[in-house]
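> call design_seq(struct)
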């Protein structure tokens, strides 16, 4: 049986919008949201410390590495990183 795509989509959205949604993260280790964020921040700080301790990087390269670390955890360089 052939159907109108728009009608089918609208009907499906309506039916699904009435259903209970449960989100699970299969590979997430146990811990509260605060523990998860604190662990992520601590790991980022360790990486930043390693960048700052590196004698192989010039200042600009160091800043770029730090920005990449921040972006890797969902943050950014803010308004200062527009170069």
């Amino acid at each position: 049986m052939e159907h109108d795509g728009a009608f089918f989509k609208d009907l499906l959205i309506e039916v699904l919008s009435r259903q209970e949604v449960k989100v699970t993260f299969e590979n997430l280790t146990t811990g509260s949201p605060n523990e998860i964020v604190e662990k992520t921040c601590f790991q980022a700080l360790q990486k930043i410390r390693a960048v700052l301790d590196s004698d192989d990087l010039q200042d600009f390269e160091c800043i770029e590495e730090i920005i990449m670390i921040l972006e890797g955890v969902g943050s950014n360089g803010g308004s200062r990183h527009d170069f």
